[in-house]
Amino acid sequence: MKCWVAGCSAVDGGKYKCTSNSPTENRWHEVNWGGKKRYAATRCLEWGRVE
Question: What is the reported pTM?
């Protein structure tokens, strides 16, 4: 999964939790998934790995 645009732009969207104990978040990052623009939950991403 790669960022769709340089700088990995973030947007506010629907609420989510990464785990049942974590706080509610609403930040999403645009990513390239299978050649299509998708959104991934920011707090649930592992940064530093690029494929």
Answer: 0.61
